[in-house]
Structure formats: C-alpha cells, structure tokens
Amino acid sequence: MAKNTDAWLKRAKEILAKGHTSHDTVPFAPSILAALYGPRSTHLEAFNRRLEEISRLKEGADFQRHRCAYATIENVVGEIENGLIENLRTRVAGEILGELVGLGKEILTDNTDSSKNVSAVLIAAAYDTRQFGAHSPHQVFDGRPKLEEVIGALKTSGILVGSEVSIAQS
C-alpha cells in the first residue's frame, strides 16, 4: 500500500465532501486507484473500462462519469478505513516470502555449490523489503545495490552460471 495512505484518505474525503459533481472526482479516482492498488491493477482497469462505456452515452455522460468516479472514491475510502487494502497486501507479501524461501530451501537439497548460490540469492530476494510493500517498489535505497546488480556481479564473477542466473532472476 502507498506509504502515504493517510494523505490519500484525507484528500479523498475532501473531494467526497464536495459532492459527486466536483471537478476533482474524475482525475482523482484513477490516481488513488493507481497509488493504492497499483498502476496495472484490476481496480484501475475496471474503472477505465467503465469510463470508456460512459463516454459512448449520448446524454448524461458527464454526470455519469462524475458519479462513477465519486462511487469509486467512496469504495476506496471504505476499504482503507476497514483495513482491507493493507490486509490484502500483507497476505500477498507473505505468500511471496513463503514461495521464495520455500524455493530456496528446495534448491538446497541438491547440495551443490551452485544450488547454494541460487538459494542464497532467492532467500536474499525474499528479505528485500522493496518486494513486500514496506517501501515503494520504485524507492531507491542509498548505498544498497539492486538485486539485478548483485545477480549480474555474481554472474560476472562466475559464481552463478548457466541456468542459475535465470532461476535467480525469476
């Protein structure tokens, strides 16, 4: 979830207080959807599809567009206030963590140096907080190399070879 959820919630409530005909509703709705659910989320895609459908109306398109955006913002506010967005993100993050650690453990059963190297990369990725929503996935940490750079360095030095590189990158 966006780190500044409180700011998004505050702005959403300000817009809702103005009513469904506020000029802010239509541009704000996709912004909050992208920020809280992701730019490729099904929520945002559904909203955009609905706006396309509304644009084909012969009459009342503006009213319907504002009404759709207003209802979308109301729904997001309700989901934030009831903890639904954060709980979903936490659950998904936990599943990803479990999968990466499980795959790392499974690869270790080969008991070779290369399997240990691939396993170490997978487990390191599992604990990379950028993967689990503690921070924005686009946030850059000063002095901390990206996982891709670490994998590249391990490949260059010959520690990861052949299919190990693609497994570590997946």
Description:
With 170 residues, this protein is an all-alpha fold. The chain folds into two domains: 5-82, no CATH class; 92-169, no CATH class. It is 69% helix and 0% strand. The chain is built from eight helices and no strands. It has helices at residues 5-18, 25-37, 42-55, 61-81, 84-108, 113-126, 147-156, 163-169. The longest helix is centred in the middle third of the chain and has 25 residues, at 84-108. The chain starts with a helix and ends with a helix. Residues 129-142 have low confidence and may be disordered.
Which regions have little confidence, pLDDT < 50, spanning 5+ residues?
A: 129-142
Structural class: mainly alpha
* Overall geometric form: elongated
Strand content: under 5%
Q: Main β-sheet: number of strands, strand sense, barrel status?
A: none
Determine the N-to-C terminus distance.
Answer: 23 Å
Our count of domains comes out at 2
Radius of gyration: 22 Å
Mean pLDDT score: 79
Q: How many E strands?
A: 0
SSE series: HHHHHHHH
Oligomer: single chain
- Summed up, the helix count is 8
Range of helix content: 55-70%
